[in-house]
């Protein structure tokens, strides 16, 4: 069995119940799992040894919400200063041009950027199936994840209510509901792996209250629970959405979802910005999950989610970059800092560096229903992110090397990243794909689509 010893790290953050940080410590990896953590560990015969002096090791981050194909549509001028509904109606016509090669390239870029920021497990919400394109478009994202070596949680999204039926998306990017349900089952059977340390697990994800019907929400929940997979959707992101739900359904977004069976430990919502006190309490009581997307919420002027309140209420909370067209990057370490800072607008002690990093790792694992990632302990997945603090941006910050990752704006690229014991980032570069060639392919595809 292949072994790797990370030796003499400046700090190792375990993300255990006591927030333990070990100084001058080692991490031993055997195969896909962590074998031991401690000081002066012996390297097994034939093991590869990496010098981690001056470096911080954290559990690989977990991104709980993304739209990978949006990396092809970053900084589109017409959408730069738009609210969510304006932004969507501007970009829907461009997204209608997606085809398999572009989906694959966009996913490679989004996932590659996540890896470079220390993220080892990524969820994606793919809901765009333009008329004339196969439902297997989403399969391209799975292929991209396998090529890069990242742990993947694709969610088969859907839109069924087009503009002619009172929805927001144009009719040519929505699908019939029977087709959605058939392909959702196909996707689960093709790619879902419930085993420990699985590299791919599937969820089902109707897009939003303004693009699917209540019937599809209800039937999707039945299908997901029949196959024991997770449920995901956008919810309570903006006041526009709240007005839409009140006018169309006579309910606020959370009540709309709850009354359709969308609460519980197998459900997580993206955003959850506009919640009442009672809704926060119910999300906590039911152990429903929330993907917090601070940069996207600021970029679109959506608001600031009540994350400290949700954490206190007992909700499962993780961090997310959201789509690269509403964030314009896929940098989860940057999201940690954004989370740290934005919640201090209300109260400076509302968010600590440790809590922000915990949400990015262990919190995200809990949101995705995983107990084998997000922490550093023997037997858990060898998903590790190693950051080099021997950089001018961190000079003078070694009093708290782990906190420095959240407070300091250093070189955002991780030095080394392991997923399942496999080195997928080495010396700050993607190890399994040609970055320069990928950038060229992405820019060519993006120019075609936006033109």
Task: Supply the key terms.
TIM Barrel, 8-stranded parallel β-sheet, alpha/beta, Urease, subunit C, domain 1, 2 domains, 451 residues
Describe the structure concisely for a colleague.
This protein has 451 residues and is α/β, with parallel strands linked by helices. It has helices spanning 84-95, 100-116, 139-148, 177-191, 214-227, 239-249, 253-258, 277-285, 294-299, 307-313, 332-342, 353-367, 401-407, 435-450, and strands at 3-13, 21-30, 33-38, 48-51, 55-59, 61-63, 119-126, 151-158, 203-206, 230-235, 267-271, 289-292, 316-319, 384-388, 416-419, 422-426, 429-430. The protein has 14 helices and 17 strands.
What would your notes on this structure say?
- With 451 residues, the protein is α/β, with parallel strands linked by helices.
- The chain has two domains: 3-59 and 373-430, Urease, subunit C, domain 1 (Roll), CATH 2.30.40.10; 61-367, TIM Barrel.
- It is built from 14 helices and 17 strands.
- The chain has helices spanning 84-95, 100-116, 139-148, 177-191, 214-227, 239-249, 253-258, 277-285, 294-299, 307-313, 332-342, 353-367, 401-407, 435-450, and strands spanning 3-13, 21-30, 33-38, 48-51, 55-59, 61-63, 119-126, 151-158, 203-206, 230-235, 267-271, 289-292, 316-319, 384-388, 416-419, 422-426, 429-430.
- Strands 1, 2, 3, 4, 5, 14, 15, 16 and 17 form a nine-stranded mixed beta sheet that branches. It has an eight-stranded parallel beta sheet with strand order 6-7-8-9-10-11-12-13.
- Helix 5 (214-227) links the parallel strand 9 (203-206) and strand 10.
- The longest helix is centred in the first third of the chain and has 17 residues, at 100-116.
- The model has no long low-confidence stretch (mean pLDDT 97).
């Amino acid at each position: 069995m292949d072994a790797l010893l990370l030796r003499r790290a400046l700090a190792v953050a375990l993300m255990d119940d006591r927030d333990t940080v070990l100084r001058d410590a080692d991490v031993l990896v055997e195969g896909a799992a962590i074998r031991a953590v401690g000081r002066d560990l012996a390297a097994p015969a034939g093991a590869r040894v990496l010098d981690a002096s001056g470096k911080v090791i954290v559990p690989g981050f977990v991104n709980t919400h993304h739209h990978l194909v949006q990396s092809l549509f970053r900084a589109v001028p017409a959408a730069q200063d738009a609210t969510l509904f304006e932004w969507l109606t501007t970009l829907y016509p461009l997204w209608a041009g997606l085809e398999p090669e572009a989906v694959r390239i966009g996913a490679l870029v989004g996932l590659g950027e996540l890896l470079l920021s220390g993220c080892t497990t990524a969820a994606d919400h793919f809901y765009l199936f333009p008329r004339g394109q196969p439902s297997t478009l989403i399969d391209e994202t799975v292929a991209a994840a396998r090529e890069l070596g990242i742990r993947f949680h694709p969610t088969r999204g859907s839109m069924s209510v087009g503009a002619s039926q009172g929805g927001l998306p144009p009719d040519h990017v929505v699908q019939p509901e029977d087709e959605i349900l058939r392909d959702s089952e196909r996707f689960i059977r093709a790619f879902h792996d419930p085993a420990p340390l699985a590299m791919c697990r599937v969820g089902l994800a109707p897009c939003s209250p303004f693009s699917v019907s209540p019937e599809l929400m209800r039937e999707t929940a039945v299908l997901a629970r029949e196959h024991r997979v997770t449920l995901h959707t956008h919810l309570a992101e903006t006041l526009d959405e709240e007005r839409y739900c009140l006018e169309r359904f006579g309910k606020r977004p959370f009540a709309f979802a709850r009354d359709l069976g969308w609460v519980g430990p197998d459900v997580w919502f993206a955003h959850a910005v506009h919640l009442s006190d009672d809704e926060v309490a119910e999300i906590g009581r039911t152990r429903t999950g929330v993907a917090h997307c601070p940069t996207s919420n600021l970029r679109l002027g959506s608001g600031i989610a009540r994350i400290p309140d949700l954490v206190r209420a007992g909700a499962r909370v993780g961090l997310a970059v959201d789509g690269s067209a509403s964030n314009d990057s896929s940098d989860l370490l940057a999201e940690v800092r954004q989370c740290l800072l934005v919640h201090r607008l209300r109260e400076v002690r509302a968010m600590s560096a440790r809590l922000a990093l915990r949400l990015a790792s262990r919190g995200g694992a809990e949101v995705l229903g995983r107990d084998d990632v997000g922490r550093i302990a023997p037997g858990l997945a060898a998903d590790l992110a190693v950051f080099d603090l021997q950089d001018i941006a961190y000079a003078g910050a070694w009093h708290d090397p782990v906190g420095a990752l959240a407070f300091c704006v250093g070189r955002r690229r991780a030095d080394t990243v392991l997923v399942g014991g496999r080195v997928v980032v080495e010396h700050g570069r993607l190890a399994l794909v040609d970055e320069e060639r990928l950038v060229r392919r992405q820019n060519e595809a993006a120019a075609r689509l936006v033109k």
